[in-house]
Amino acid sequence: MIRSLFILLGTFFCLAVFAQNSDSVTVTKKGSLGFSFANVGLENWAAGGQSSVALGTIFNYTILRETSNSTWKNQLDFALGGAKVGEETFRKTDDAIIFISQYSKKMNDNWNWGLAAIFRTQLLEGLNFTDTGSDRISGFMAPGYLSINLGFDYKPSDAFSISFAPAAGKFTFVMDDDLSNAGAFGVDPGSKTRAEFGTNILTTLNIPIAENITFSSNLNFFTAYDSFGNVDTNWETLLVMKVNEWFNATFGTQLIYDDDILIEISDTVFERRIQFKHVLNVGVNFSLFKN
Predict the structure, then answer these.
(1) Separation of first and last alpha carbons in the chain
(2) pLDDT in tens, 206-259
(3) How far apart are CA 82 and CA 80, in angstroms?
(4) Fewer beta carbons within 10 Å, N or C terminal of the chain?
(5) How many whole angstroms from its chain centre is CA 275?
């Protein structure tokens, strides 16, 4: 079933390319690469505290193909960061690989129909540190998430849009044998994939707050038809503050609630909980394309 969906998805986007070739096509490329660094050094410091070093990198690349009545956007985002505090080992603080492909066809001035695919995973293994050591709780493609959404998009302005996909698939991959056998991330114990079909709603907001300051928000809801009413939520926000051509600061948040994921509260207690992450980056940023 999953293989058939990939074939169908690839066929659709190939047809989208040929359809665009019949009209005048405008291609826009954008990309950036950023690095951040933070350091605190303490020696014989009477007020106490610990020395620390933090490193981070962010990369994004977007290709937008446009015709008079259609758009096709492909976007790759990558983030990786870590920190060392005191005598502890260097530990991961941020890790994300996100690929988004969206094709839309104009119906009228505000309405479009289209197909979107979103893939998410991480690069390095994730560890849960305890007083006696550490346990591996995640890794590359453990989990991996793929969502495929077919539906309609309402966009009254460049700042706001809302998408409704009554035909949506959410696929969870856990390719690590140990995590798969433990039934991590909602898969059945011993299984490496989980497929859900339902409805997806996505709202996006992109607004300028002040000169060189922008805010964006993506709020996503998914509910499967076999458990309708149990809503998985993913809400991401990003505040970008540009100092000049080279230096900027970003503050991002992510809130996740997934009914299938149980969070370990103690050695024997697992509960459904809201996951929350915030990341502040201050550093240098390079534009890779200008067009």
Answers:
(1) 41
(2) 999 998 999 999 999 999 999 898 999 999 999 999 888 888 899 999 999 998
(3) 7
(4) C
(5) 14
